[in-house]
Amino acid sequence: MMAENGRKLFNILNQYSYSEVKAGSTRLKKVMAVKSKNRQATQKEIEKKLSDVGLFFMREKTRFSSQAATIIDYSELTKVKGSQVILVFKPESGGMTETTLNSTITELVPALAFMNSYFTEDVNDLYYYIKNLDNSKQTVYVNDRDMKAGQEFIDDMPKSSKFEIKMKNAIGVQKFLIDEHKKRPIKQVFFAYRAKPKFNNKEISAKHKGDIFLLYENGNMLGVSLKAGDEKSAEPKLNTYVNKIFETLDPNKVDVLRNELYNKIYKSFSTDKSQYDTGAERRNTKKKLSNLESNNLSKYEELYDKSLGIIRKTLVDVLTENVKKTVAYFNEAIVGKDVDVPLIVVKAFNDSYKILTDDDEVEVFLPRTKKIESKISKTSKQNFTIELIENTRSKMGLEFAVRSNKVGDDHKLGQFFNLAVKFNGVSK
To answer: Which residues pair with 400 in a beta bridge?
Structure first.
């Protein structure tokens, strides 16, 4: 029976590309990474096969992947209670993630449908129409490389586990385009996947946050940042990293932060102060951190919380030390300010849309900012507020969070100082 169950499990796994995650596996737990183009679909497929052959499993979040793992009880085979095989699901190297695929549905589909004057609220009819267009003749693409990528995205769209809802979101975005066209006739919609279109004979900055660009009949252009979610959900208005902010505002702070983190956090895991987070020594440091997380999770989390506090404080210091530089950075990174090509943010929910105004409020207030202060959240390890101040009666709070956004050995302490930074909107 034990051997039979083992054969059942590995007969299933052998139908896929998988490998053992050595850094996570222990005597009682074997972590297997299953790679595929569509992680969610592959997980459902494997779980159905496990059920069909009578193998017990459960889903649970782990440190190895942002997607919940499939955990299989392996006690019968090892004769040790608590033995498990943990299946984590990873995208194939070079393949698109589902997040990228989903965002492309809400960007590319409405652009193609609008430029071909086709509208339907039927998801399947809309996809069938897009699928059967001659992609090589579509004007929404900035270059041939994006056109080729677009065709691959179109072919893979039905593989998304959120295909129907994202296609509805695409319909919502097309409704925005139709309404905008009634106000100001649109000549061309561009899908800005890897490249930005040209305007006034020069390329739009790669830093512009537009996902699609609208060229109007009157010669003006507008960038549109697209968000998707529930009507009342709050999507981040900015996703960036600590080092990107430091590079813009105060590059010297990188070494200051690295040295402080080494002295207070990483000294126990590396004897090389100058190389502990780079090259081969970085790998050695991460391996020791992974061992700590496996063997003493509470200590690992304690060190991460301490590291997070140091990073957050340094980040706040950088954002508040020079009003002029920070205002300029916010104009570029949050508002997406461009002299020639302004930006608006459109949120699709179900098959409807609304225009978000937080960025507009920030754009209006930034030129009036005379002083910048900060507030560290007392209830969250990640959150902080940057206060733009005109005078004692006129202030605006910008809500930020800094946190790890990697998985496996690369997360938390394994991400070192370069954590993700998100702007979540104006304080309400």
So the answer is: 384, 423
Cα Dmax for the chain: 76
Is the Cβ–Cβ distance between 110 and 173 less than 8 Å? yes
- Say whether domain 2-91 belongs to CATH 3.30.450: no
> Both ends of the chain: CA-CA distance in Å?
60
Place of tokens 């902080």: 384
| The model scores a pTM over 0.90 | no
Which sequence spans correspond to the domains of the chain? 2-91, 98-228, 238-336+357-426
259's CB contacts (< 8 A; 6+ apart) are 273
Sole residue written with tokens 């105004």: 357
Non-local CB neighbours of 212 within 8 Å, separated by 6+ positions: 107, 110, 111, 189, 190, 191, 192, 223, 224, 226
Amino acid identity at 98: E
Nearest to 165 by CA among 215, 229, 214, 208: 229
pLDDT in tens, 119-173: 999 999 999 999 999 999 999 999 999 999 999 999 989 888 789 999 999 999 9
Chain position carrying tokens 């608590």: 82
C-alpha span between 333 and 30 (Å, rounded):
43
Please name the residue that has the structure tokens 């790679």.
Answer: 35
Tens digits of per-residue pLDDT, 251-287? Answer: 999 999 999 999 999 999 999 999 999 988 999 999 9
